[in-house]
Amino acid sequence: MFVATLTLLALIASVAFYVYVERFSKILKHSGKLGGPRAYPLIGNGLLFAGKTPAEFLQTVGRLIQQYGKCFRIWLGTQMLIVITEPKDVEAILSSNKYIDKSIEYDFIRPWLGEGLLTSTGRKWHTHRKVITPTFHFKILEQFVEIFDQQSSTFVQVLAAHAKSGDTFDIFRPVTLCALDVICGSITNLVQIRLFNFLIRYEIFYRFSANRRKQLEALKVLHGYTDSVIKSRREELNRAAGSGKNTVVDENENELGIKKKMAFLDMLLQSKIDGQPLTDLEIREEVDTFMFEGHDTTTSAISFLLQNLAKHPAIQQKVFDEVRNVVGDDRTRPVTIAMLNDMHYLDLVIKETLRLYPSVPMFGRKMMEDAEINGKVFPAGSNTIILPFFLGRNPEFFPNPEKFDPERFNVETSAEKTNPYQYVPFSAGPRNCIGQKFAVAEIKSLVSKLLRNYEILPPVGRYDETFIAELILRPEKGIYVRLQPRVY
After folding, report:
1. What pLDDT was estimated at residue 197?
2. Binding residues for heme
3. Coil vs helix vs strand at 404
4. Which long-range contacts (CB under 8 A, 24 or more apart) does 322-331 make?
5. Residue 67 maps to a domain
6. Would you list the DSSP string of 177-228?
7. Is-annotated flag, keyword Hydrolase (predicted)?
8. Pick from 371, 350, 441: which is nearest to 95 by CA?
9. Domains identified in the chain, total number
């Protein structure tokens, strides 16, 4: 019996090894046709990133794009990544329903987010996307503007001391002033370390590293917090159901029976798939995904936007004039979704900010089958990496790309004719960002409130502008500005 079992295991291992070698051979065959830097056995191009600081990773990728063009391959260990910055290639990947599997890099955040909307695929992704989409309907979004306004007022109060003193300070810090954000940041920092380290990209090595232990400690806090909130709310709803009282309806409807706010969590707790409610694990995965995608990305966008308003006072004045014209002179007046929709120039400023500083600087797809993309074969088993950071800075697509010019997005006056896949800060196609309207409304609410109270000034002295491309784009050394009370 023992010999038979051993023989069977050896046979399975041999078949698995044969399949791996066959697939790897096919990838190698197509690798040579794609071009790229010289790779070495086992480590691939890992030495290109060895010894580099996190800020230097992005610079290294930029140099490779300059040297090898809009489509090339790099090897990290035995994993092949196809880097694309050609809009036609980007469109072929993102617009298709065939290429919806996320790249191997997303495996690094699965211990945190599980199989939530960001990381799941196949039927689970389709069904959960269908369930969650109504959460971001414009009527629901309308109801969250009150929360945005309250958060913005708190933010303005937090900054009052800086405005009074006129000191130079890192505005990235107060934007992320939340203990939970600090823990989230520790997770994304660990992911960033894995992205370019050709050894700990492999789970077998990462499992025994000190970084893995740090990750487990942070996940214990995050998952514990989310689980406790879900449990508490589910028990509250169950008690209400047992007493015959519909707590959700009572809390979320006014005296005319019109729905008010329904929290994201309540919608998940009430949702069903194939007649069955979502499990606590499924709900936690979606709540953690929403927390990750909704906090860090918005923090990045707001911080870089404020930095550019400080650098460009004429643009800042134009934004303020628009906000004042829409909202009026009462600084305490709450904004509405209609007001936010009327801030058209601020829309252009947000778009220009995300062109230069996309909150998600890179994302990827895993090729589950051989695909011919504009005459090139992307083999099964490879990972395609799309880089909004470099798409937005290509002078071929955006003349004078380093210039901060919101008017380039003004379709009425701009002469620039763009392929929509040159600009993909929210991705595109079937797996585009489901919460992009939510994010833009939140950014508009906070920025408009800030400008109604303060002028944003450049810092005293010079500060380096270098970036860390984790899952989220971050400043390496902060974003420094000054504030002064606005008089009008």
Report:
1. 63
2. 433
3. coil
4. 322/346, 323/448, 323/451, 323/452, 324/452, 324/488, 327/448, 327/452, 329/488, 331/452, 331/453
5. no
6. --HHHHHHHHHHHHHHHHHH-TTTTSHHHHTTSHHHHHHHHHHHHHHHHHHH
7. no
8. 371
9. 1
Say which CATH number the domain at 341 has.
1.10.630.10
Owner of token pair 């990045």: 300
| Secondary structure string (H, E, C) spanning 219-285 | HHHHHHHHHHHHHHHHHHHHHHHHCCCCHHHHHHECCCCCECCCCHHHHHHHCEECCEECCHHHHHH
Q: What is the pLDDT of residue 277?
A: 83
Would you say residue 261 has pLDDT above 70? no
Over residues 201-214, the pLDDT tens digits come to 656 666 667 767 76
Element (H, E) at 79: strand 79-84
Give the pLDDT confidence of 436-476 residue by residue, as tens digits: 998 899 899 999 999 999 999 999 987 778 888 877 898 98
- 262-314 tens-digit pLDDT: 467 777 788 877 788 888 888 888 877 877 777 778 889 999 999 999 999 99
CA dist., res. 464 & res. 450, Å (int): 25
Which of the pair, 10 or 99, is modelled with greater confidence? 99
Point out which residues pair with 467 in neighbouring strands: 475
Q: Give the domain extent around 309.
A: 105-241+257-357+391-483
Q: What's the half-sphere exposure (Cβ side, CA atoms, 13 Å) at 165?
A: 8
Return binding residues: 433
